[in-house]
Specification:
With 165 residues, this protein is α+β, with helices and mostly antiparallel strands. Helix content is 21%, strand content 27%. The chain has a 5-stranded antiparallel beta sheet, with helices on one face. The longest helix has 35 residues.
């Protein structure tokens, strides 16, 4: 699918074998998802030149930490947004008049953390770290049907100003 400033994005699909949720990510067998993974820009020995770099990967412990933090932020952001709309709905229902404007309905992408293991093999993530069989950590996000035609991104990772145009 592409790469941004610090993550690669690849097409994928998700099928859960047990504990299948009623809605959201994993509720549909063979659900199309975007598989994201952080990367490090590895420049040639003579230094960066005109954006030329190779994609390097973090040590397993660092990658897992970064992916876990992002998945946690998405989880808590979803909960806070749900509480916000519950409060708005309560206020609108308690009011004798409807609001003089339409209340926008935003949502965060459904996402989850997926871990890849090497069966029967042990990997040492970085020197001095404990050995484990984990190979990679991926952030899975729902694939938005229709792409850019139906999706509006209001805030971008590299700029906290709203993208209203």
């Amino acid at each position: 699918i592409g790469r941004g400033g610090f993550k690669t994005a690849h097409p994928g699909w998700l099928t859960l074998a047990s504990n299948i949720p009623m809605t959201g990510l994993g509720s549909v067998p063979h659900q199309k998802v975007v598989v994201k993974r952080p990367f490090i820009k590895v420049y040639p020995p003579n230094g960066p030149s005109a954006g030329t770099y190779k994609i390097g990967r973090y040590a397993m412990a660092d990658e897992l930490s970064k992916q876990y933090k992002e998945a946690s932020v998405l989880y808590w952001a979803n909960l806070l947004l749900d509480l916000t709309y519950a409060f708005i709905n309560h206020c609108v229902a308690a009011s004798s008049n409807p609001p003089p404007f339409e209340i926008p309905r935003l949502r965060f992408i459904h996402a989850g953390l997926a871990l890849s293991f090497l069966p029967g093999q042990v990997v040492i993530a970085k020197p001095g770290a404990k050995a484990c069989s984990m190979r990679a950590a991926f952030l899975l996000e729902e694939l938005i049907p229709g792409g850019q035609d139906t999706f509006v991104k209001f805030i971008h990772n590299t700029d906290c100003n709203p993208l209203l145009d």
